[in-house]
Amino acid sequence: MQLLCETPDELLINLKRNYSGLIVALQWLYSGSTVALQWLYSGSTVALQWLYSGSTVALQWLYSGSTVALQWLYSGSTVALQWLYSSSTVALQ
Question: What pTM was computed for the model?
Fold first, then answer.
C-alpha cells in the first residue's frame, strides 16, 4: 500500500495489484471539501465511484456480468438517477 501526504489537506491512498489477469484497484482522495473513492475489480468487472464535494454527492456502480449499472447524483435541490440492467434490458432515467 502506498500512502502519500503532500499537504495537510490532501491524502491519497493508491492500491493496485495486477497478477494473472486479475486487477484490483482502489483510489481514495481527500482534498479540502472533496472526498472521492474509486474501486475496480476486473474478473468480470466490478466498479464503484463515489464523490462528495460540498453539496454534491455522486455514486456510480457497474457490474459487468450481464451488465448492471447505477448512477446517482444529489446536488443542492437536484436529484438524478439512472439505472440499467441488461439481460432483457431494464432502464430508468
Answer: 0.59
Integer Cα distance of 77 and 4 in angstroms: 35
Contacts of 51 (CB under 8 A, 6+ apart): 34, 35, 36, 37, 57, 58, 59
For 18-77, the pLDDT digits (tens) are 444 556 677 777 888 888 888 888 777 888 888 898 888 998 888 888 888 888 889 888
The parent domain of residue 75 ranges over 2-92
Domain count, the chain: 1
For residue 57, the 8-state DSSP code is: E
Question: Under DSSP, is residue 45 helix (H, G, I), strand (E, B) or coil?
Answer: coil
